[in-house]
Design brief:
Largest sheet: 7 strands, mixed
Number of strands: 11
Distance between the termini: 40 Å
Order of helices and strands: EEEEEEEEEEE
Helix content: under 10%
Shape: globular
Number of helices: 0
Radius of gyration: 13 Å
Strand content: over 45%
Oligomer: single chain
């Protein structure tokens, strides 16, 4: 059974930081590109960042470049999203995913507010 379980979300003030984690199981994690997506209220789900299977290739949405960093630990079947200099417009539900297989986590709320 495929599972993607996100953690690390919550409420943070503007300018603060959070680190999201996603633990995967039920499939060969190290073989797949992984992605983080987000969906704000009333908006479509958009790509935030993705990372190649080996971790050497990454790309980011323009809105988060220089502030967010995606990484992975294949020994732990875990992908991370380090989010710095958070802005109110980063508020959304964040999802971990395997885009090529259509696997999605349940999502985790990130709220940036003073």
């Amino acid at each position: 059974q495929v599972q993607l379980v996100e953690s690390g979300g919550g409420l943070v003030q503007p300018g603060g930081s959070l680190r999201l984690s996603c633990v995967a199981s039920g499939f060969p994690f190290s073989l797949y590109l992984m992605g983080w997506y987000r969906q704000a209220p009333g908006k479509e789900r958009d790509l935030v960042a993705r990372i190649s299977s080996g971790g050497t290739g990454t790309n980011y949405a323009d809105s988060v470049k220089g502030r967010f960093t995606i990484s992975r630990d294949n020994a732990k079947n875990t992908v991370y999203l380090q989010m710095n200099s958070l802005k109110p417009e980063d508020t959304a539900v964040y999802y971990c995913a395997v885009p090529s297989r259509g696997y999605w986590g349940q999502g985790i709320q990130v709220t940036v507010s003073s």
